[in-house]
Specification:
This protein is α/β, with parallel strands linked by helices. It has helices at residues 50-63, 113-140, 176-188, 197-206, 210-225, and strands at 12-15, 23-27, 32-37, 66-67, 73-76, 79-86, 96-100, 103-107, 146-150, 157-159, 164-168, 227-228.
């Protein structure tokens, strides 16, 4: 079976006899990228197109960017939420963002949506990141120096040598177990700066269902990366 390791977005391999060459497409219904080959004889040639495919995925994400605007339905902690914008109440001294059931309401001007949502989502991501990171760090008895939220285009988290952890703000869009997996992954790097068997054993101790969560993230990474602040 062909390995698609290194191909961004965990693409699906599909055979279509009508195709005359290897082509790439985005299946909107599944939210997945697809590599189409004319026949099984082309399977061995797919690896040669990895760099071209990854560049195509990068351009696709840029082209399909989803920005936050009034009425947008988007995932927040894995559940669909609707973004609503209301005029600034005269009793409010400054714009604010409220979360109520499945609605995230921004009180302010439409031109300020991006700025307010950026702060709201990053703040929410930081709260979760700190809770999970400190919980796992305590379990492994490792000290953490700093936890930050960043806008990363191809990574979900990083563990620096000084035990500083960085997380992609888009994790707050995913179901909670996905953030748990990434946090367990990065905290485990504080002990194992590699992806050895010992590393994955540590991840499994912190997050027993990490394989399912890792698979979900691979399958939905392209969709999450489309959101832009």
């Amino acid at each position: 079976m062909i390995s698609l390791d290194g191909f961004r977005g965990n693409p699906i391999l599909s055979i279509n006899p009508r195709a005359k060459r290897i082509i790439f497409r985005f299946d909107r219904a599944q939210g997945r990228t697809v590599i189409v080959i004319p026949s099984k004889q082309y399977v061995g040639k797919v690896a040669q197109h990895k760099d071209t495919f990854n560049q195509w995925v990068d351009s696709l994400i840029l082209k399909e960017r989803i920005t936050f605007s009034n009425g947008l339905i988007f995932p927040f902690k894995g559940a669909p939420h609707t973004l609503m914008v209301s005029p600034l109440d005269i009793h409010l001294k400054r714009p604010k963002v409220e979360l109520f059931n499945a609605i995230i309401r921004v009180h302010g001007h439409h031109d300020d949506i991006r700025r307010h949502m950026k702060k709201f989502l990053r703040d929410e991501a930081l709260i979760v990141a700190k809770i999970l990171s400190e919980k796992y760090a305590k379990a492994l008895d490792v000290p953490l120096t700093h936890i930050t939220i960043k806008d990363m285009s191809s990574m979900w988290g990083r563990c620096l040598r000084q035990k500083e952890l960085c997380y992609n703000w888009r994790l707050i869009l995913a179901p909670s177990p996905i953030f748990e997996y990434v946090a367990a992954h990065e905290v485990s790097h504080c002990i194992h700066p590699n992806h050895s068997a010992a590393f994955w054993k540590t991840v499994a101790i912190l997050c027993p269902h990490f394989k399912e969560n890792r698979a979900w993230l691979k399958n939905n990474s392209t969709m999450l990366m489309q959101y832009s602040l």
